[in-house]
Design a protein that fits this description.
Number of strands: 13
Distance between the termini: 115 Å
Oligomer: single chain
Structural class: alpha+beta
Shape: elongated
Strand content: 25-35%
Order of helices and strands: EEEEEEEEEEEHEEHH
Length: 234
């Protein structure tokens, strides 16, 4: 048998047995609580049975919607907050800032997520279909390679990294100064870095192909010269 909290008056809640789910009713079954369902499957199970786009869950903190998640296994406190400007932030108590920020615009196109830390995944893909792009233009391969060769590529570590974790790459300021890509000089887009590397590879391919042709011509000239010398010595 499930039990439901029902308002007997404006200030009193009482437990009464129920046999069926009802919209807006709070059910308690063992260590599980159900809202809109009389068979909760998790500690808090909310089911919306009417149509519409009303919020499923909301907690107001002094006018700003936010809520807290606590992992009692290791004492971690995670805070989720929606600011008035529409930014959604995820923070861990004691870090002094937000680890994840969603919908914070950082460039003309609108970066939708900012993560203060590393992201690990088995695969990362980015949108690159031609029908999603416009304003195409080609790059000078040789010029791109020359610019890339002038950018300092150093080994370094982030100030926030622990255990002396090191990385290799250019600074965002140098990369943006050389190519003017992206909407900021404080970060490098993976798309842009990959594109510049591919153009540079094409430039090297051009140089190697041109050199191979010159070598082939020189070998042909040398072969003809040898034949001429051989005829003259007979």
């Amino acid at each position: 048998m499930s039990y439901v909290f029902a308002a007997a008056s404006a200030l009193i809640l009482c437990l009464v047995p129920v046999t069926a789910a009802a919209q807006g009713v709070l059910f308690v079954q063992g260590d599980k609580v159900g809202v809109g369902t009389d068979t909760p499957e998790v500690p808090l199970h909310v089911v919306k049975t009417t149509a519409g786009n009303a919020n499923m869950f909301r907690v107001d903190n002094n006018g700003a919607a936010s809520f807290e998640f606590r992992n009692t296994q290791n004492g971690a406190f995670w805070f989720f907050q929606a600011d008035q400007d529409g930014t959604f932030k995820v923070s861990r108590l004691g870090t002094g800032g937000s680890e994840i920020i969603v919908n914070r615009r950082q460039d003309a196109n609108g970066v939708t997520m900012f993560v203060d830390g590393s992201i690990q995944a088995t695969n990362v893909t980015y949108t690159s279909a031609r029908d999603r792009k416009t304003e195409f233009s080609t790059l000078d391969r040789a010029e791109t390679l020359e610019k890339l060769a002038e950018i300092p590529i150093e080994s370094w570590q982030y100030k926030t990294d622990k255990n002396a974790v090191r990385h290799v790459g250019p600074t965002a300021e140098d990369f943006h100064g050389a190519f003017g890509l992206g909407g900021t000089d404080s970060a490098i887009s993976v798309v842009d870095a990959t594109g510049i590397a591919l153009v540079a590879i094409q430039a090297l391919h051009d140089e190697v192909s041109e050199r191979d042709e010159r070598i082939a011509d020189l070998e042909q000239d040398l072969s003809e010269l040898k034949a001429l010398v051989f005829d003259m010595t007979e």
